[in-house]
Amino acid sequence: MLRVDGIHSYYGKSHILHGVSLEVNKGEVVSLLGRNGAGKTTTMKSIVGIVVPREGSILFDGTTISGIETHKVAQRGIAFVPEHRGIFQLLSVEENLAIAARRDSIWGLSEVFANFPRLKERRHNRGSDLSGGEQQMLAIARALVNGPKLLLLDEPTEGLAPVIVDEVVQVIAAVRQSGIAVLLVEQNIKVCMNLADRHYILEQGNIVYSGSRDEFCTADQVRERYLTLN
Ligand SMILES: Nc1ncnc2c1ncn2[C@@H]1O[C@H](COP(=O)(O)OP(=O)(O)OP(=O)(O)O)[C@@H](O)[C@H]1O
Ligand SMILES: [Mg+2]
């Protein structure tokens, strides 16, 4: 479904991604791991066209998306939920969802409220009244009602209390259940091991490891070498 092939991305003269290749297949949850500054966010930005790779290609559903504008990438069916969420602070939960909703999405408001009970409770509250966890859930929900085929989540559990982390994990599991593929950047290794079918590790802009769920579970040395364990 998504095939990133040998991309090189830069910020000005800084060469950040050195030939990153990865794949996400239909219905999969794939994690992208790596230490701070490894290039995880830059990889996501490159996929959605916020950063334009200078070399390499990105294919989605068999067509090239590298070089096309960000809103067109979204129209093709890739939703990006960035680290800093970007929900509308002055709009209510319901309004935030309504402006993003597309009729052809399998996730409508009723599906969202069934899977995110917290959002249902808070549906008349403004974005600015929500806790960090609720804002994260709203950002994910907003991406879902837009009808994506692939969801890119950048550190969805960062800074959240453990009980809220569990709720976000359940939400991501529900997303997978609904047939939407997920590329997940996540520092919480337990969350990744819990959710992902496959894993990639980035180190200084290079993919240094890829493995299945089972392979990764037993790859203690890989985890120690490339990841900050927590
Ligand atoms: N807008 C920018 N301009 C210049 N350099 C940047 C910019 N954004 C990121 N970088 C640099 O690019 C490198 C990769 O950053 P990136 O944000 O992709 O890492 P990351 O793996 O997402 O890290 P983190 O875990 O801290 O979120 C870092 O060295 C970072 O300092
Ligand atoms: Mg990042």
Task: Provide a descriptive summary of the structure in words.
The chain is an alpha/beta fold. The chain has a single domain, classed as Rossmann fold. 37% of the residues lie in helices and 27% in strands. The protein is built from ten helices and ten strands. The chain has helices at 40-48, 70-76, 93-100, 109-115, 117-121, 132-145, 162-177, 189-195, 213-218, 220-226, and strands at residues 2-11, 14-24, 29-33, 55-60, 63-64, 78-81, 150-154, 181-185, 198-203, 206-212. It has a six-stranded mixed sheet with strand order 6-7-8-3-9-10, sandwiched between helices. β1 and β2 form a beta hairpin. α3 runs parallel beside α6 and α6 runs parallel beside α7. It is globular. The two termini are 32 Å apart. 40% of the residues are buried. The structure holds adenosine-5'-triphosphate and magnesium ion (MG). Magnesium ion (MG) is lined by residues 40-41, 83, 154.
Topology:
Blueprint: E1 2-11, E2 14-24, E3 29-33, H1 40-48, E4 55-60, E5 63-64, H2 70-76, E6 78-81, H3 93-100, H4 109-115, H5 117-121, H6 132-145, E7 150-154, H7 162-177, E8 181-185, H8 189-195, E9 198-203, E10 206-212, H9 213-218, H10 220-226
Parallel strand pairs: 3-8, 3-9, 6-7, 7-8
Antiparallel strand pairs: 1-2, 1-4, 4-5, 9-10
The structure holds adenosine-5'-triphosphate (ATP) and magnesium ion.
The site of magnesium ion has 4 residues, from helix 1.
Q: Write down how many β-strands occur, each being a DSSP E stretch of 2 or more residues.
A: 10
Helix share, percent = 25-40%
**Unique bound compounds:** adenosine-5'-triphosphate, magnesium ion
Distance between the termini: 32 Å
Question: So, the CATH homologous superfamily?
Answer: P-loop containing nucleotide triphosphate hydrolases
CATH architecture: 3-Layer(aba) Sandwich
